[in-house]
Specification:
It is a single chain. The protein folds into two domains: about 150 residues, Alpha-Beta Complex (Aspartate Aminotransferase, domain 1), CATH 3.90.1150.10; about 260 residues, Type I PLP-dependent aspartate aminotransferase-like (Major domain) (Aspartate Aminotransferase, domain 2, 3-Layer(aba) Sandwich), CATH 3.40.640.10. It is built from 13 helices and 16 strands. It has a seven-stranded mixed β-sheet, with helices on both faces. The chain has a four-stranded mixed β-sheet with strand order 1-2-3-15. Helix content is about 35%, strand content about 15%. The two termini are about 45 Å apart. The chain is α/β, with parallel strands linked by helices. α4 runs parallel beside α10, α5 crosses α9 and α11 runs parallel beside α13.
Length: about 425
């Protein structure tokens, strides 16, 4: 067994981490194991996970049901190409996804990751209009503060100024952006909120293939929550101007906002839906892009008569079997009350931070708690404080946020919240 110091040294020399540099001076923590909501570091410290491994591990770690799904599928096959072949896990998962998503969505394209599912959605929208002999409809329209992934298509519809990809602005496809709404989740959507998007649609609809949005919760672009009424108005405008609606529920899907899918808050359905993250319960990478029958039929009947995308590991049986087990685990649990209880605890526990002068706003929706500061955090100094407090929290920019696994106990959740509140209080200048 390598010593912890040697592992860290080797990591720093050879391994890239997300949004990091080789030989970064940011702290890194070798993990020995993870069980339930607890992460055990190699040095023996045990941390309560406040991040669900970036929204994905909703059932926690090392779950016996998901472990069994992996083990059982391994006995048959870990992988098989999806070109010309099919298998039960993919079919069963597709049927389940069609069943639980909004009714118009009837077809499923399995992708490797969330970013790829967004690329697939964008290509579907563009190919749809090409098949309808409207090739000029190839632009995507979105709102600012969005984040849709790190690949080139996904980057092009992520916020060009406040996001993480401004370095690439001159290289990316130039898409259309509207100011994001200011109406919070509890507020009505005003004319001023919808006007920027409506104006773009009115002026540019002949060039727009689709509007793409994160419904209700904008994630990595700022953890902003907005009114369901805004989403209703967007759906209406897309219909009015003959534009498709793509909803990116990679982060919000599978119960995180208190509804199975965030678009249910607005009681609307997209034409194309992107799913990922919690799809496999955080066990492995898998994503899905769902589309209406109209989109599927239009692409099939147009030129070249097939959708032009096909990943090597598409519909990986191991991932599909695990995703199906994860969905059943979620749907057979009292997840609505579980998320409501987490919401109540986050709302009650984090509210004290609102009184600190360095805190701009505290906001909570479902199993998401956000503390927005006035100034960007120093991750190098702040991360060790959370670890010392016994919790795993990964702040970014001006945001300290929590999205714990749904299985977290009341005791662990209170410990997590208490640790975060103490660290935030100690930041008070």
């Amino acid at each position: 067994m390598h010593s912890q110091n040697l592992l860290i040294e080797q990591d720093q020399q050879h391994v890239w981490h997300p949004y990091s540099a080789i030989q970064s001076d940011l702290p890194i923590y070798p993990v020995k194991s993870a069980q339930g909501v607890h992460i055990t570091l190699m040095d023996g410290r045990v941390l309560i996970d406040g991040m669900s491994s970036w929204w994905s591990a909703i059932h926690g770690y090392n779950h016996p049901v998901l472990n069994q799904a992996v083990t059982s599928q391994l006995q048959d096959m870990a992988h098989i190409m999806f070109g010309g072949l099919t298998h039960q896990p993919a079919i069963d998962l597709a049927l389940e996804l069609v069943k639980i998503t909004p009714e118009p969505l009837q077809t499923v394209f399995f992708a490797d990751s969330g970013s790829v599912s967004v690329e697939v959605a964008m290509k579907m929208a563009i190919q749809y209009w090409h098949a309808k002999n409207q090739p000029d409809k190839k632009k995507l329209l979105t709102i600012r503060y969005g984040y849709h992934g790190d690949t080139f298509g996904a980057m092009s519809v992520s916020d060009p100024d406040n996001g993480m990809h401004s370095l690439f602005n001159n290289t990316l496809i130039q898409q259309l952006f509207a100011d994001a709404p200011n109406c919070t989740f509890q507020e009505p959507c005003t004319t001023a909120d919808i006007a920027p998007l409506e104006s773009q649609l009115k002026d540019m609809h002949v060039h727009i293939a689709a509007v793409i949005l994160e419904p209700i919760v904008q994630g990595a672009g700022g953890m902003r929550f907005y009114s369901p009424e805004y989403l209703q108005k967007v759906r209406h405008l897309c219909d009015q101007y003959n534009v498709l609606l793509i909803l990116d529920e990679i982060a919000t899907g599978f119960g995180r906002t208190g509804r199975l899918f965030a678009c249910e808050h607005a009681e609307i359905a997209p034409d194309i839906l992107c799913l990922g993250k919690a799809l496999t319960g955080g066990y492995m990478t898998l994503a899905a892009t769902l589309a209406t029958r109209d989109i599927a039929d239009t692409i099939r009947l147009g030129e070249p008569g097939l959708f032009m995308h096909g990943p090597t590991f598409m519909a990986n049986p191991l991932a599909c079997a695990t995703a199906l087990a994860s969905l059943k685990l979620l749907l057979n649990s009292p997840w609505q009350s579980t998320v409501a209880n987490i919401e109540q605890a986050l709302r009650k526990g984090l509210q004290v931070c609102q009184q600190y002068p360095h805190v701009k706003e505290v906001r909570v929706l479902g199993a998401i708690g956000v503390i927005e500061l006035y100034e960007a955090v120093n991750l190098k100094t702040l991360q060790p404080k959370f670890v010392a407090a016994g919790v795993w929290v990964r702040p970014f920019n001006k945001l300290i946020y929590l999205m714990p696994p749904f299985i977290i106990s009341a005791e662990d959740l209170n410990s997590l919240i208490g640790a975060v509140v103490k660290v935030v209080a100690d930041m008070n200048p």
